[in-house]
């Protein structure tokens, strides 16, 4: 994954590669916030979003099922199966639903890092 | 061109939407004045406000939609005067705007009959969100509610009172029947009995003469000297068009109200249009949203120079009133000497249907549907388009009987100009064209044509049109799982079996593409479990499980889980009860007895699940599979060991059956029961397979269902012994597992099975396919491979690690989880 303005990104260590189940997600604690981290080993890709599903404000996305829609990686919330794109966070099942915040992920050796821009996590902050 | 619109209701919004879509960018300036403080909202679904929808959720579009489209919106500022000579309007707050065209979309007000006492406290009208807020604030003081008016809106208002928690609600109608404009006496009688079972008392032919009470309402006085106590009243006796501005500036209005308009919706001043409920066309006020939208379309087109005409509108309507389908279409009241009627009434199920056809039996004129309005769209189109009826016209009402082909030609028989979506005025041709252009899913057609985006009632017809259009293009429509697997579940089951595939990735590599999704992953996981019965959390297959299967528990509000140990047959020892009590107290769990004779413990943190199960497993409990599409419970009555009527030992047989099929994964959940005599205390006939003792053995019933569409199980075999009964269940379950579509319960599966129960009996009892021995072998393999999933997790540190909330802080619980106190226990905090 590449972002143009890498200068403003703070990378924090999340977990080891082996900690994240293949084709699934885990929840990572960053300060007082929760980030969902997903691994797509078949494509060699990693994604991160806020853990909070905006539909019913539940901390659940890391437990959702991952997959693709016409090639676009996505996650479906375990509560009501609302799907969100992992590329830009938009809701794929309901145009009026709020979008997720997404975060860059990088792998160094067997360690996973998540990038936070500027002031930190915005959405997904605890209520 | 500058257009000023007075009023900001649904019709006004639709007019703006049409104008934005039709006019060249920058060519039209739109200014809207609304009397209410909020932008246009969905008045049709107003009662949803009381069942939890917020005012904002009801909005047609948020306030910034108007800004984004350069529409000036003045809210809370009614126009007070129109100066036709100067072509200006003046608002309450002192704004003056000039106009080239003026649109009156002022709507209507509630008609309040001049009954003494209507000004007392506790008397409301039902029109705006503000009215609803006033009702909501008053309702806690009230126990008995009443509604004057048994029409469409009155019944909606009555539903609102029920939603507000009033225990006794009465509907008072002046006419001899409910919904006098839409349905007939028989329909009204049936609707009335349905409503009374829901707590609504209906009084017809009642004239209210006075509202009793000092300052607040205490009751109603009727013309026949009777009275009715009530401490809250909603008046919904009709609508009064808001034509006062029009009258002030000298536009012609009707004797009983309404602004007179021509075919182009112009008033007597050609620069001024009137649309919606304030417009009087051909002596008629159209109090429904669909004709209002059509008026918006015609007026907008005419201003832009197109030639369209409003020629009246079909007042057919279909709605769900307090859970009861009610529909009327065409002319339901054609005089008896000008038509013939076919009537179907089923007081058991609460269904009444009547159609009026021409005396020669050729065409449908109109009709009424109560209790079941599934055929509304088809019948409406048949009537509107003068489609020739089949030789036995009753077929359109009852479907073809006696194994013949369906009577009507279906959606394909409609002419191209047939309007499929009457809210958005989308024709059959428009939908078919969209499909031919490559929009081959319901979502794509919705986006492209707007059909099925308003009330959604036409969605099934749109789906049928998509399928039939694609078929007519020679495209093969297959019942495939999703975009990742171009196979039906049955095909994939066979392929996975032949290739002996054992993981989701292997199945995806061989037969799928992409990464899978929340639809196909659980299907494949279920097929693998039904074939091999491997531990479902085996690495690689864990993330293919549906969310609840992945944590071997049911996720509940707030993100905690519930725990259900298996209690075979509902038999439990005092010692086991104590273990459950200790565990529940230790982990602070809410406990409840389930409908399946077990105990459910709620509110467990994900990281506590292995600890809880460690204690339960140590006490001999096993997983109850309440989280899986698997066998749930085999319920039993106490049977012959204690009961003086019992014929056989139903508990022992239930335990034997539950232990045989525990852990069995299927296309959907499976429920069972065993009753020890014909009194049927275990309710076996509502289960996927149910067993009832007879003098000679057991009767085996299959494919029953509770839930939203209850269905009685049907007798598969009678008077069989224990072993035969189990052999038949083995065959039945394996046949279902192999052939059913995903998430299809046995009842629905049987309903779709060609040949129905006769065919199933032939396969299971008479072995007509010659597969009975194979089915039994396959089942025995699954039975022999059973292991308790929770015991395996408890004993496996790697699997236990998966049960934590934070991967980088496994000892911490999710701090956002909140509980509230409830009757000496707790409940999940309410979500937003």
Q: Judging by the overall fold, what is the CATH architecture of chain A?
A: 3-layer Sandwich
Question: What are the segments of chain B in which pLDDT stays under 50 over at least 5 consecutive residues?
Answer: 402-409
Overall pLDDT level of chain B? 90
Uncertain residue segments of chain A: 1-6, 122-127
Please outline the helices and strands.
The complex is a heterodimer of chains A (127) and B (832).
Chain A lengths: L8 E8 L7 E7 L2 E8 L4 E6 L1 E2 L4 E2 L5 E5 L2 E5 L6 E3 L16 E2 L1 E4 L2 E7 L10
Antiparallel strand pairs in A: 1-12, 2-3, 3-4, 4-10, 5-6, 7-8, 8-9, 11-12
Chain B lengths: L1 E5 L3 H13 L6 E5 L29 H6 L2 E4 L4 E5 L4 E4 L4 E3 L2 E4 L3 E3 L12 E3 L3 H10 L5 E5 L3 H12 L4 E5 L12 H13 L2 E4 L4 E5 L6 E4 L4 E3 L2 E4 L3 E3 L2 H5 L10 E3 L10 E3 L4 E3 L2 E2 L3 H15 L13 E5 L2 E7 L9 E7 L4 E7 L6 E7 L5 H9 L10 H4 L20 E3 L4 E2 H9 L5 H8 L9 H14 L16 H11 L4 H8 L8 H13 L14 H5 L2 E2 L5 E3 L10 H13 L3 E4 L5 E6 L4 H10 L12 E6 L13 H12 L8 E6 L13 E5 L4 E5 L11 E7 L1 H18 L6 H7 L3 H9 L7 H13 L4 H6 L2 H5 L17 E4 L2 E4 L4
Parallel strand pairs in B: 1-2, 1-7, 2-3, 7-19, 9-16, 10-11, 10-16, 11-12, 18-20, 33-34, 34-35
Antiparallel strand pairs in B: 4-5, 5-6, 8-17, 13-14, 14-15, 20-21, 22-23, 23-26, 24-25, 25-26, 27-28, 29-30, 30-32, 31-32, 35-36, 36-37, 38-39
Helix pairs in contact in B: 1-7, 10-12, 13-15, 20-23
Which descriptors apply to this entry?
heterodimer; A: 127 residues; Rieske Iron-sulfur Protein; three-stranded antiparallel beta sheet; globular; disordered N terminus; B: 832 residues; alpha/beta; FAD/NAD(P)-binding domain; five-stranded parallel beta sheet; 25 helices; 30% helix
Quick summary of this structure?
Chain A is an all-beta fold and 127 residues long. Chain A has strands at 9-16, 24-30, 33-40, 45-50, 52-53, 58-59, 65-69, 72-76, 83-85, 102-103, 105-108, 111-117. With 832 residues, chain B is of the alpha/beta class.
Write up this protein.
The complex is a heterodimer of chains A (127) and B (832). With 127 residues, chain A is mainly β. Chain A has one domain (21-117): Rieske [2Fe-2S] iron-sulphur domain (Rieske Iron-sulfur Protein, 3-layer Sandwich), CATH 2.102.10. Helix content of chain A is 0%, strand content 46%. Chain A is built from no helices and 12 strands. Chain A has strands spanning 9-16, 24-30, 33-40, 45-50, 52-53, 58-59, 65-69, 72-76, 83-85, 102-103, 105-108, 111-117. The radius of gyration of chain A is 13 Å and the shape is globular. Mean pLDDT of chain A is 85; it is low at 1-6 and 122-127. Among the domains of chain B are: 2-108 and 241-303, FAD/NAD(P)-binding domain, CATH 3.50.50.60; 112-237, FAD/NAD(P)-binding domain (3-Layer(bba) Sandwich), CATH 3.50.50; 489-545, no CATH class; 550-618, Sulfite Reductase Hemoprotein, domain 2 (Alpha-Beta Complex); 631-784, Sulfite Reductase Hemoprotein, domain 1, CATH 3.30.413.10. In chain B, helix 1 runs parallel beside helix 7 (289-303) and helix 13 crosses helix 15. Chain B is globular and about 90 Å long. Mean pLDDT of chain B is 90; it is low at 402-409. At the A-B interface, strand 2, strand 3, strand 6, strand 7 and strand 8 of A face helix 15 and helix 16 of B.
């Amino acid at each position: 994954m590449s972002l143009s303005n890498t200068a403003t990104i703070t990378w924090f260590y999340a977990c080891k590669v082996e900690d994240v189940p293949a084709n699934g997600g885990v929840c990572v604690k960053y300060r007082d916030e929760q980030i969902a981290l997903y691994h797509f080993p078949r494509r060699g890709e990693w994604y991160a979003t806020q853990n909070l599903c905006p539909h019913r404000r539940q901390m659940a996305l890391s437990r959702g099922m991952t997959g693709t829609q016409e090639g676009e990686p996505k996650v479906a919330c375990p509560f009501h199966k609302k799907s969100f794109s992992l590329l830009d966070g938009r809701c794929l099942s309901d145009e009026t639903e709020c979008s997720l915040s997404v975060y860059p992920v990088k792998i160094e050796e067997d360690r996973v890092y998540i990038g936070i821009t500027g002031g930190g996590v915005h959405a997904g902050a605890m209520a | 061109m500058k257009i000023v619109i007075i009023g900001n209701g649904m019709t006004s919004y639709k007019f703006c939407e049409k104008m934005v879509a039709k006019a060249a960018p920058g060519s039209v300036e739109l200014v809207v004045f609304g009397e209410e403080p909020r932008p246009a909202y969905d008045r049709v679904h107003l009662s949803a406000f009381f069942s939890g929808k917020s005012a904002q959720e009801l909005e047609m579009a948020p306030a910034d939609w108007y800004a984004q489209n350069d529409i000036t919106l003045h809210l809370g500022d009614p126009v007070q005067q129109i100066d036709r000579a100067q072509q200006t309007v003046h608002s309450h707050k002192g704004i003056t705007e000039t106009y080239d065209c003026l649109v009156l979309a002022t709507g209507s007000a509630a008609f309040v009959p001049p009954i003494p006492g209507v000004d007392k406290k506790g008397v409301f009208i039902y029109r705006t969100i503000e009215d609803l807020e006033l009702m909501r604030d008053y309702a806690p003081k009230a126990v008995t509610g009443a509604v004057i008016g048994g029409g469409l809106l009155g019944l909606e208002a009555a539903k609102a009172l029920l939603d507000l928690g009033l225990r006794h609600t009465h509907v008072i109608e002046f006419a001899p029947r409910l919904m006098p404009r839409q349905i007939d006496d028989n329909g009204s009688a049936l609707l009335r009995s349905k409503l009374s079972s829901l707590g609504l008392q209906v009084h017809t032919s009642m004239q209210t003469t006075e509202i009793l009470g000092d300052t607040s309402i205490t009751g109603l006085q009727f013309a026949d000297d009777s009275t009715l106590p009530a401490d809250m009243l909603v008046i919904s006796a009709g609508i009064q068009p808001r034509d006062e501005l029009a009258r002030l500036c000298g536009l012609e209005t009707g004797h009983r109200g309404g602004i007179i308009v021509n075919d182009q919706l112009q008033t007597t001043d050609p620069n001024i249009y009137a649309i919606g409920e304030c417009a009087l066309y051909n002596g008629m006020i159209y109090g429904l949203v669909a004709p209002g939208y059509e008026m918006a379309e015609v007026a907008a087109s005419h201003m832009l120079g197109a030639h369209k005409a409003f020629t009246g509108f079909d007042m057919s309507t279909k709605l769900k009133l307090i859970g009861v389908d009610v529909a009327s279409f065409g002319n339901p009241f054609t005089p008896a000497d000008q038509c013939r009627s076919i009537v179907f009434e089923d007081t058991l199920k609460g269904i009444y249907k009547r159609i009026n056809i021409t005396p020669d039996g050729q065409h449908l004129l109109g009709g009424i549907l109560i209790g079941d309005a599934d055929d509304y769209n088809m019948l409406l189109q048949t009537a509107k388009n003068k489609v020739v009826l089949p030789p036995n016209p009753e077929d359109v009402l009852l479907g073809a009987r006696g194994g013949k082909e369906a009577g009507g030609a279906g959606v394909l028989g409609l002419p191209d100009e047939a309007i499929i979506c009457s809210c958005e005025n989308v024709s059959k041709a428009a939908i078919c064209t969209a499909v031919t252009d490559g929009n081959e899913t319901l979502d794509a057609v919705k986006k492209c044509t707007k059909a099925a985006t308003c009330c959604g009632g036409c969605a099934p017809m749109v789906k049928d049109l998509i399928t039939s259009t694609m078929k007519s293009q020679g495209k093969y429509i297959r019942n495939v799982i999703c975009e990742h697997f171009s196979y039906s579940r049955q095909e994939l089951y066979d392929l996975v079996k032949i290739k002996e595939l054992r993981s989701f990735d292997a199945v995806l590599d061989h037969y799928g593409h992409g990464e899978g999704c929340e639809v196909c992953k659980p299907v494949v996981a279920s097929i693998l479990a039904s074939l091999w019965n491997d531990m479902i959390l085996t690495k690689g297959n864990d993330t293919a499980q549906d969310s609840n299967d992945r944590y071997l528990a049911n996720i509940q509000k707030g993100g905690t889980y519930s725990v259900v140990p298996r209690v075979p047959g509902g038999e439990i020892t005092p010692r086991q009860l104590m273990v459950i009590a200790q565990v529940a107290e230790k982990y602070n769990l809410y406990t409840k007895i389930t409908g399946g004779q077990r105990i459910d413990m709620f509110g467990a943190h994900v990281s506590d699940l292995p600890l809880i199960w460690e204690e339960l497993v140590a006490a001999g409990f096993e997983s109850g599979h309440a989280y899986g599409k698997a066998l749930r419970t085999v319920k039993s009555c106490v049977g012959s060991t204690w009961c003086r009527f019992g014929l056989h030992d139903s508990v022992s047989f239930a335990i034997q059956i539950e232990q045989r099929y525990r852990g069995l994964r299927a296309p959907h959940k499976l429920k069972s029961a065993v009753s020890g005599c014909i009194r049927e205390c275990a309710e076996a006939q509502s289960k996927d397979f149910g067993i009832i003792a007879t003098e000679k053995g057991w009767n085996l019933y299959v494919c029953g269902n509770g839930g939203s569409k209850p269905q009685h199980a049907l007798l598969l075999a009678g008077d069989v012994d224990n072993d035969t009964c189990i052999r038949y269940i083995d065959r039945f379950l394996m046949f279902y597992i192999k052939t059913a579509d995903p998430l299809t319960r046995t009842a629905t599966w049987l309903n779709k099975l060609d040949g129905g129960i006769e065919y199933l009996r032939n396969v299971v009892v008479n072995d007509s396919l010659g597969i009975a021995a194979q089915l039994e072998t396959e089942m025995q393999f699954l039975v022999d491979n059973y292991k308790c999933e929770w015991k395996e997790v408890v004993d496996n540190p790697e699997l236990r690690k998966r049960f934590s909330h934070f991967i980088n802080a496994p000892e911490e619980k999710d701090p956002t989880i909140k509980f509230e106190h409830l009757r000496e226990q707790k409940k999940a905090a309410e979500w937003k």
